[in-house]
Amino acid sequence: MKIMFVVGFLLFLSLQNDPYSYQRRKMVEDQIQSRGITNKEVLSAMKKVPRHMFVPSNYQEHAYDDNALPIGLEQTISQPYIVAYMTEIINPQPTDKVLEIGTGSGYQAAVLAEIVQKVYTIEIIPDLGLRAKNILDELEYNNVEVMIGDGYHGWEDHAPYDAVLVTAAPEKIPQPLIDQLNVGGKMIIPVGSVHGIQHLILLEKQKDDIKVLKKFPVRFVPFTREEE
Questions:
Q1: Are the beta carbons of 39 and 105 closer than 8 angstroms?
Q2: What is the pLDDT of residues 141-178, one digit of tens each?
Q3: How far apart are CA 11 and CA 170, in angstroms?
């Protein structure tokens, strides 16, 4: 009886300090683990990162729902399961250096930052990139660097990367991102027309070859270029 009281009291304190902790745990159990995500570091990160901090205040009560949400400027924060899936499939390691294209809300970068050594993330929309940087700084994700720019060209100054994760859909995989990927590294990227079918593509860079696997249909915002 005493043990149950202590557990209940600790749960009460947790909810007082973070009213969304229960929703986050349920999100992981019902939306992510139940769909086959098993990587312990990914599950732990998804339980820890406060997704509600990365969405506009009028959507915070829906932050842990099983769907994407608008974040303004015609952009979205991805469905929690997709974030978890894309993170798990690149097999992130504690010593990894990861490049993300399409910072968006900053949520995916935060999830990665819980697992890997360093995250470099690029956002082409200045207001969005600066907002994400402010949130990441506020949450003390000191291992994330944000750049405003055209993600098509990657971030050559810090290459090569152990993994590349792209959260906007180009019609074909940008060659600079392949060039900046380490041998043995993986890239996960949605590819396809905004008006047609997009597929999530897993690319693995081998010593003398590029291995490409088509995963499943998805719907991402289009990959924006500076010349557009």
A1: no
A2: 999 999 999 999 999 999 999 999 999 999 999 999 99
A3: 44
Of 14, 44, 78, 105, the active-site residue reads 78
Q: Please, what are the domains in the chain?
A: 2-218 (3.40.50.150)
Residue 21 catalytic? no
Which H or E element spans position 211?
strand 210-218
Indicate the burial class of 228 (C-beta count within 10 angstroms; 0-12, 13-18, 19 or more).
Answer: exposed
Give ∠ CA 164-170-176 in degrees, rounded to 5.
Answer: 50
The 10s digit of each residue's pLDDT in 62-109 is 999 999 999 999 899 999 999 999 999 999 999 999 999 999 999 999
DSSP code, position 194:
T
Q: Rounded to whole angstroms, how far apart are CA atoms 15 and 8?
A: 11
Beta-strand pair 181-191/144-148 = unpaired
